[in-house]
Amino acid sequence: MWFSYIIDGFANIAEAIVGKYYGVRDRVKFYNAIKIVFKWGFELSLIFILIFYIFGIDIAMFYINSLILWSSFLLFFRGLIQTIQFFLNF
């Protein structure tokens, strides 16, 4: 839930930055802003991946109190960790 607020805030910032240069018709700054926003988005996603990789089980234990949901989460999390390890070894 907290991550959705962070992502939504990032989207609002990105819209404001890119929209500013689109509104004044400055193509160079507009395309530079898009590049910067993509770079920030990529870096933010790496930070989220690292947080979930290290604290994923602890975060889930805080929010999940149903045994059925917990077993489903463990299946998902195991696949997520395997995917991350695959790309780290790629």
Would you mind describing this structure in some detail?
This protein has 90 residues and is mainly α. The longest helix has 37 residues. It has one domain. α1 packs antiparallel against α2. It is built from 3 helices and no strands.
Descriptive keywords:
90 residues; mainly alpha; 0% strand
Q: Short description, anyone?
A:
The protein has 90 residues and is mainly α. Helices cover 91% and strands 0% of the residues.
Present the secondary structure layout.
Layout (H helix, E strand, L loop, with lengths): L1 H22 L3 H37 L3 H23 L1
Tell how many strands the DSSP assignment holds.
0
Q: What is the number of independent domains?
A: 1
Low-confidence stretches: none
Bin the strand percentage: under 5%
Number of helical segments?
A: 3
Helix content: over 70%
Mean pLDDT: 87
Radius of gyration: 18 Å
Alpha-beta classification: mainly alpha
Order of helices and strands: HHH
> What form results from the Cα inertia axes?
elongated
Biggest β-sheet description: none
Distance between the termini: 31 Å
